[in-house]
Amino acid sequence: MSKTYKILHNLVNHTLPPELRNRIWQWMVTPSGLKEKEEALLSIWEDIPTEATSNTYHSLKATQKKIKQQPSAKQFNLFPKLMRIAAVLIIPILSVTAPYLYIRNYYSEPEMIQCFVAEGDTQELTLPDGSKVNINSGSLLLYPKEFKGDTRSIYLVGEGNFSVKKDKAHPFIVKTSHLKVEALGTKFNVQAYSESEKIITTLENGAIKVDKINEDNNSFILAPDEQLEYNLHTGTFEKRVINAANYSGWTKGELNFINLPLKEILSTIQREYAVQFVINPRLFTPDLYTIKFNQHENIDNIMRILTLTVGGLNYEIEDNIITIHSLKKKGV
C-alpha cells in the first residue's frame, strides 16, 4: 500500500482535519506524481464494497423467480458501477474524484461548494452571482463560494438547467468532463451524465459557445432552439434545430423522450424515479420512440404507457425493482 494511497484513503473517509485536507487538495493539483495519484484514486474506487445486503436483493430474487430466471441468467444493469452504489457510498468518492479533476484542470482554489442530488430528486439553487440552476437527479454540481477572476466557472456531472445573470465582463462557463459551455446571459440545458455516451447542450434563449476542453479552435455557436450533441466515442458533433422547451420540461416535473431508444429511456426513468430495472439486453432494439408524460406522472402509469408503446413487453413492479420481459417468451 503506497503512501499516496494512504493519504487519499484518509481524505475519502474524512478522517483528516480541515486544515490538513486543504493542504492535500493543494498537493493533489500539482503535476508531481500525477500518475501515482490517479492510480491510487482508482484503487480506492475499486476497493469500495458494492455488495448489497440480503435485504437489498430479496425483492430482486423474488422477481427473478416469477419470470423463471436462474441466478446465472444474464441481466442488464443500466448504470455502471458508480451509479449503482448507494448515495452513502457515491458521495465520498465523488467528493474526491470530481473536485480533483475540476481543480486540477480548471480552478486554482480548492474551496468550493459541492451539491449532490440523489436519484429521484431535483434541486434548485442560486449561485454566488445570482444565476439560477435546476439540478436533475443523480447529478453533482461544483462551484466556488465566490466567483473570482475573469470568468464564472462551475463543473457539472449530470444534468443542469441554467438561467444566467448577465455580466459581459465575466463570461459564465459550465465545464464537463469533455466540453465547456460559455454564455454571457442566457438560458440553456446541459446533460452530461458520466454513464452516458453523449453530452447534449440545448439553448432556450440568448447565445452560447461550446468547445472541447482545452480546445478553442472548433467552436460551435448555438442560437435559440438549437441543440448540440457530442458523441464521446467518435468525438463528433451533431447540431440540430429542436423545440428547446421539450428538453427543459424536467424542471417542471415533466418527462419528455424525443426519438430515443428504449435503453436511454429506461436509464432516465431509473434516475428520475430511483428504481432499478431488470431486463435482458436482447430486448433492446435500435427503434426510436417519442413519448411525453404529464408532470409528476406515477411510475406505474409510465411503465404501462411505455410498454404499450414499445409493444411486446410486460412489466412487474415490486418495491423499487421493475422487471421487464417479453410477452412472447418470458425471460427473453
Describe the structure.
With 332 residues, the protein is an alpha+beta fold. It has 2 domains: 103 residues, Phage tail protein beta-alpha-beta fold (3-Layer(bab) Sandwich), CATH 3.55.50.30; 141 residues, Sandwich (Jelly Rolls), CATH 2.60.120. The protein has 8 helices and 18 strands. Strands 1, 2, 3, 4, 5, 6, 7, 8, 9, 10, 11, 12 and 13 form a 13-stranded mixed beta sheet that branches. Helix 1 packs across helix 3. The chain is globular and about 60 Å long. About 11% of the residues have low confidence.
In short:
The chain has helices at residues 3-12, 18-28, 34-47, 54-66, 81-84, 87-106, 262-273, 299-310, and strands spanning 112-117, 123-126, 132-135, 139-144, 152-163, 172-175, 179-183, 187-192, 198-205, 208-212, 220-222, 226-231, 237-241, 255-260, 276-279, 289-293, 313-318, 321-326. The chain is an alpha+beta fold.
Features:
Phage tail protein beta-alpha-beta fold, single chain, 8 helices, 332 residues, 29% helix, 13-stranded mixed β-sheet
CATH architecture of the largest domain: Sandwich
Quaternary structure: single chain
Which structural category fits the helices and strands? alpha+beta
From the alpha carbons, calculate the radius of gyration and give it in angstroms. Answer: 21 Å
* Cα-to-Cα separation, first versus last residue: 45 Å
Overall shape? globular
Q: What is the top-level CATH class of the largest domain?
A: Mainly Beta
